[in-house]
Amino acid sequence: MNSDYKDIITKAYIGFNSRNIDAVLLLMDSNVRWPKAFEGDYVTGHEAVREYWTKQWSEINPKVEPASITQRADGKIEVEVNQLVKDLEGNVLFDGKVNHVYTFENNLISVMDVEEV
Known about the structure:
This protein is an alpha+beta fold. The chain has one domain (3-116): Nuclear Transport Factor 2, Chain: A, CATH 3.10.450. 29% of the residues lie in helices and 49% in strands. The protein has three helices and six strands. It has helices at 3-17, 21-25, 46-59, and strands at 28-35, 42-44, 60-71, 77-87, 92-105, 108-116. It has a six-stranded mixed beta sheet, covered by helices on one side. Strand 1 and strand 2 (42-44) form a beta hairpin. The longest helix has 15 residues, at 3-17. The mean pLDDT is 95. Keywords: Isomerase. It comes from Flavobacterium rivuli WB 3.3-2 = DSM 21788.
């Protein structure tokens, strides 16, 4: 696996968990396709990701920690994550494993998909 991918993935989760949208967007293609995991469908582009995350964080408090990072035969990067989602009062809504699957173009995240483990 390209070590740059692992570094980018690690930085992305650190930025997401610290709510540093700008730091994460620097790691994404300007036309990134990002899943709206709790709503279905996707958003496209930096501003749409910013709007989606801002809305998401006003409703829930997710924390996502990578457990393993591997490269699939098709070149995509699979990240098994421990995902803890709480409501704004601190009640647990979800606590479990999920797979995040990334496609890269020019060393930037171009697509992210979510798969059940």
